[in-house]
Write a structure and sequence with these properties.
Blueprint lengths: L10 E5 L7 H11 L3 E6 L4 H9 L4 H4 L13 E4 L12 H4 L10 H11 L5 E4 L16 H26 L5 E6 L14 H20 L4 E7 L5 H4 L4 H11 L8 H12 L10 E4 L9
Parallel strand pairs: 1-2, 1-4, 2-3, 4-5, 5-6, 6-7
Helix pairs in contact: 1-10, 5-6, 6-7
The structure holds nicotinamide-adenine-dinucleotide.
């Protein structure tokens, strides 16, 4: 029997790849293994680093596709994109001289490159999060940092979806964002305004599901358990967080990046053709627990 997950002919924009550890990398591999063509939209500052992960011998094993599919992660393109900037005018003067910021890396500039590269877009994966004060608990967070967290980690889903929408016309697309349970429960160490950013990300995904549904597109969220990515390590003691969550989860184990990638793959496939506006937990069941 052949399981019907076939993304052949689909183009996936995957944001938030900075290394071969984070969720974005594993999601890109799963989507490519299912037949999708991948375009990476990475932070301009990390593009040269990602390029190395895509080519150096040392990362060959990490590039291998999952599910026993022959081949390795080979995006059609790697495009610099700072999701905090809608147009070139939003790129701060001070950043314009920085490595990676030589060209227009705003969403407008990045999508001009996407349009020149592919005729359509089917899948949009939002894998981006940042707060400049991530180590500060909410009561200590400045307005500026809180709003930056909102802009980069939450509004960017709407901005990406807006930018991709003309390219998704007639395609029955799927948009997937990544969240964390601190959006709906108090998780004191999840600081920097990120808990609020995740709450609005999830809320926006439901609104977008309605507005994009009229075009046949779906919008969903995967709420992942803790995982030791670069972003997560900046939050605090991620090892303790993972162990504690694992002990208290119904399945008594931690998640890995492939678990999240597989859930995103499901949400991008026809298997979920009537699933939209939902948050799918990939956390070994932790969210279901009370005391
Ligand atoms: P990660 O560090 O690999 O990914 C975060 C990405 O955001 C990085 O690639 C970074 O370059 C990118 N980014 C930050 N600011 C940006 C900007 N202005 N423009 C473009 N890109 C920018 O870490 P990850 O854990 O794989 O995170 C991916 C997603 O998963 C995030 O939304 C995160 O909140 C979510 N998530 C992570 C965990 C976890 O424990 N790791 C749990 C639940 C949800």
């Amino acid at each position: 029997m052949v399981v019907p997950v076939n993304l052949t002919g689909k183009v996936a924009l995957v944001t938030g790849v900075a290394d071969d550890v984070g969720f974005g990398w594993h999601i890109a591999k799963a989507l490519q293994a299912a037949g999708a063509e991948i375009v990476l939209l990475s932070h301009p500052r990390v593009c040269s680093i990602v390029e190395r992960f895509l080519t150096r011998d040392k990362s060959a094993a990490e590039r291998k596709l999952p599910f026993g599919v022959d081949g390795e992660l080979k995006p059609r393109a790697l495009i610099g994109c700072d999701v905090a900037c809608d147009t070139a005018a939003d790129i701060p003067e001070a950043m314009k001289g920085e490595k990676g910021y030589e060209s227009d890396v705003s969403l407008e500039g990045a999508f001009a490159r996407v349009r020149a590269l592919v005729p359509h877009v089917d899948l949009v994966i939002h894998c981006v999060a940042f707060s400049p004060e991530i180590a500060k608990a909410l009561p200590e967070v400045s307005r500026k940092a809180y709003l930056t967290a909102q802009s980069v980690s939450s509004y960017s889903l709407t901005a990406l979806a807006q930018a991709a929408r003309p390219l998704m016309k007639g395609r029955e697309g799927s948009v997937v964002g990544l969240s964390y349970m601190a959006s709906e429960r108090a998780v004191p160490f999840y600081g920097g305004g990120m808990s609020s950013a995740k709450a609005s990300l999830e809320s926006d995904s439901r609104m977008l599901a309605w507005f994009f549904g009229e075009d046949g597109h779906r919008v969903n969220i995967v709420s992942a358990g803790p995982y030791a990515s670069r972003a997560a390590k900046s939050i605090g003691d991620i090892g303790t967080m993972i162990d504690t969550t694992a002990q208290k989860s119904p399945l008594r184990r931690a998640i890995d990046a492939d678990d999240v990638a597989n859930a995103v793959l499901f949400l991008c496939s026809d298997l979920s053709r009537n699933v939209t506006g939902t948050t799918l937990y990939v956390d070994a069941g932790y969210h279901a627990m009370g005391v």
